[in-house]
């Protein structure tokens, strides 16, 4: 990996905004993947570096960029429970219904891991609760498997 790319990923991981700003001024490829297949935006959001993510999005990073497994930044923050990062990604028109390699969505991650504030945020912004994963399960099925009664209730209310 080129030194500037290594520095880009480091700045995204740690939230080094001055370094990130300097790198972005050099027109670096924002869709580059690290050795694990992650994009800079996925790294920033997964490490809860919301301001770094905002800088990347303002510079033109693909809000729907996927890692090697098809996961997006929104899926990662739904798993981690970062409401502020999810709201930022949604404000940049993240596709709420993208599916990763096994058919999972951000809403499914939120429900499976008890991130019920994110379940609500995603539903309020129009996430499709009827999508099925590769096993034929929808988000309600997954919430039920996890005993997530709060998510089940929200899903029932959403119809």
UniProtKB/TrEMBL annotation:
ANK repeats lie at residues 36-68, 102-134. It comes from the Bacteria. Keywords: ANK repeat, Repeat. PROSITE patterns: ANK_REP_REGION (PS50297), ANK_REPEAT (PS50088). This is Uncharacterized protein. The lineage of its organism: Bacteria, Pseudomonadati, Bacteroidota, Sphingobacteriia, Sphingobacteriales.
């Amino acid at each position: 990996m080129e030194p500037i790319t290594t520095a880009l990923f480091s700045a995204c991981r740690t939230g080094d905004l001055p370094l990130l700003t300097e790198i972005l001024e050099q027109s670096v490829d924002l869709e580059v993947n690290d050795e694990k297949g992650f994009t800079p935006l996925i790294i920033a959001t997964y490490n809860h570096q919301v301001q770094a993510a905002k800088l990347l999005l303002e510079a033109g990073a693909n809000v729907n960029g996927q890692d090697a497994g098809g996961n997006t930044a929104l899926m990662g923050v739904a798993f981690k429970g970062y409401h502020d990062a999810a709201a930022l990604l949604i404000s940049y028109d993240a596709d709420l219904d993208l599916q990763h390699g096994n058919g999972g969505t951000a809403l499914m991650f939120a429900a499976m891991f008890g991130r019920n504030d994110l379940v609500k945020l995603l539903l309020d912004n129009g996430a499709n609760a009827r999508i099925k994963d590769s096993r034929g399960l929808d988000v309600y099925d997954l919430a039920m498997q996890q005993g997530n009664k709060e998510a089940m209730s929200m899903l029932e209310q959403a119809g």
